[in-house]
């Protein structure tokens, strides 16, 4: 098991190096740089900027240097814990993103948990009672959740909250709690706001989970060991939960690593619409203004999350399915 | 006897009512929220905080103190809203009609006959929000900073085409001296650009500059910045940079000072009253009336702001939420939300300006686009009414790029020429431009045998209606024999393409509809925004000599006239010269417009008084700040 984890860990580091190069290159791909979009903004407001001033700034920011030099500066800084300065906010990147990433992980983590809570029982039920009315209802409900675009669902929720209750749903806190320290009332206020985005994000993934679980479980339920267990007189719930469900979970666990980035990228528009201070809107804005160190840091951290998620799913998989471990012996 | 009594009684009641009404207002002089600070000694009495000659703002009615003005920022980088709401405090300002220049921080001024020297007298006793006096030293410091090559900015103070120096006479009198005549200088600083000179407090900002603090470089390093310039920028910035509103320690002269700063993670930016604000109402009460500003920060989408406005959670706002598509929604929601709609007149003249690249590097296209008949042909081939009906629900009228009807430069002929939809006239003009043969798709062939296809660069993210309009124009022009290809691109690429000179056409809105004199980008090759003649504009400005091209004669004549405008001493002379420029524009017809930009609207809560029911909206005329929010109040 230890050897397995070490192997995985080395692969992880190599992946990260590759990802960081790709991330930095992608941010540099669009024409121009931060100063071009800065001039664009100034120019649109009727301001004339002397090209020599811009040249000065470009040197100050180190924007005129070749790609590899810029990348090397960036990555060596990151190794020392310095993610660089955000051009737009004139602040260290790290200071800007940690709070937002925290909220992202919190919201999206809650969404994953809610998703599993909804999907697992429905998936098991749908498999055990195949082609029953309940199976159809659950499946149709799940597909509706999958089919409605997240931002649209968010808009509908906001509109209904406004017309029915006269409240504007948005943000994660009421004004009086925005800058308060964590306390029970603040947590309560947070939950009062967070349920909506969590629900929106969770419904998007449930259908997929339900279908995977249902299909896997159907395969397992036909196998002889299940028939044997049932013949030996085990209670039905135990027959289903003890082994078939555990095996059916296998593909779900192995994709945990993809959940995090999928949720972060999937939540960008929801966050913009519902006004959530998560990493998504900041990533979007930093990309449009070409604030490259900020964008680079967010993309890199998302990649780190993916890689960590993959590691977690590998370990979990090794735990629930002993067959996986044979490979590393 | 009874009658006398009756009159005596009514008189007494009336007197009492008048005293009751006048009494508290006279007794107040300052916001009640400041009373305790003054009595505890933390703040000097109001008489010592006000200048000897405070600026008096007259609202429709005398207000009362208190309340919070709620509005919404779009995304974190929305410094524009803050500038347009609180930061418009220059030496001079505009009146509500955007016509005359009025005193602000300067109480009077004199202009030399050659329009090179401007001598200002500051209001004595104006104080920064930290209580220190506002003097000529602060103005001189701002000039010094803007002209410091290491502290790169861009402003009229460091304009290399007309270098400027400042001569300080005493604490309250100083002179700006320009190398060349600058007849429009007062209009320049009455606009939003004026705040450059009044935004840096020497006392606070000089501590980050090596001239005043020998440890400046070391301090910057210790604070984590690569150079003193970056540190100074972080602490003080320039007139309207986003980061100016991220530093609550920075003293200002605004009516409200920052309480919760604008940072990347701010969910709300709040402001509280500036106890040293230097304006009063007609009865001598210190302004502002409203205690606090509360700006919720959206994450870049305006859906939540729209709902908040509908729900009565926005007290006054135009920016972001007043879209054409939202108008019916806001109209229907007035009663439930407790607000009403005010009128907002845009400064832009046109919904869409089609700018053919007259400086195209391809000689065939250049020749064609420079042919006036070709442009007239296109203009006649556009059915403007159809576009107005489909895209703007009938709002607006066919219009060229010309000063708006509200402008003193309005010229109906210029605004309406070639706007009628007339396919026959279009065909005649195309023939006159040398387009006679068509290919199998019905598209004219240019002189090199290629079809007349124009690739139009557009940023639909900025104004979604541009794409809708262009798609209709695409069909209309195809029927007339000219093919349009839409090239929807990002803003950075849009700007990068300009110096290269290989784009066919770009579209933008018609800026300069009211502020035609200050923003003549479509009337002659004036600035980088004169995309239709980018290389000629470089010749005029001297900013990018490597790509500058000598303009044709008529453009040169306009540039010459505009230089005379700059040198002219009186508004009448300037207007006369500018009309000559517009006459050439009318003759040459450089860019093609579609329709008059329809009026917008503002959301005004019903209990908010003295707020403008009608106002202009422009960047150079920063609304609502130019409509004096300090005298607005909640009933």
UniProtKB/TrEMBL annotation, chain A:
Give UniProt keywords alphabetically: Cell membrane, Membrane, Transmembrane, Transmembrane helix, Transport
Classify the main location: membrane
* Chain ranges of the ABC transmembrane type-1 domain: 101-313
TM spans (from-to): 9-29, 101-128, 140-165, 194-213, 252-273, 293-320
Membrane topology, as annotated, equals: Multi-pass membrane protein
Domain of life of the organism encoding this protein:
Bacteria
Where does the protein end up?
Answer: Cell membrane
InterPro entries in the cross-refs: BPD_transp_1_N, MetI-like, MetI-like_sf
Pfam families registered for this protein in UniProt: BPD_transp_1, BPD_transp_1_N
Member of which family? Answer: Belongs to the binding-protein-dependent transport system permease family.
Protein name stated in the entry: ABC transporter permease
Automatic annotation (TrEMBL), chain B:
- CDD domains named in the record: PBP2_NikA_DppA_OppA_like_4
InterPro entries according to UniProt:
Peptide/Ni-bd (IPR030678), SBP_5 (IPR039424), SBP_5_CS (IPR023765), SBP_5_dom (IPR000914)
- Provide the species name: Devosia oryziradicis
Keyword terms, alphabetized: Signal
Solute-binding protein family domain ranges (all copies): 101-513
Q: Which residues form the signal peptide?
A: 1-27
| Similarity-based family | Belongs to the bacterial solute-binding protein 5 family.
Where, subcellularly, is it found? Periplasm
Its recorded name reads: ABC transporter substrate-binding protein
Membrane-crossing residue ranges in chain numbering: none
An example Pfam family from this entry, by short name, is SBP_bac_5
Taxonomic lineage is: Bacteria, Pseudomonadati, Pseudomonadota, Alphaproteobacteria, Hyphomicrobiales
Q: Which domain of life is it from?
A: Bacteria
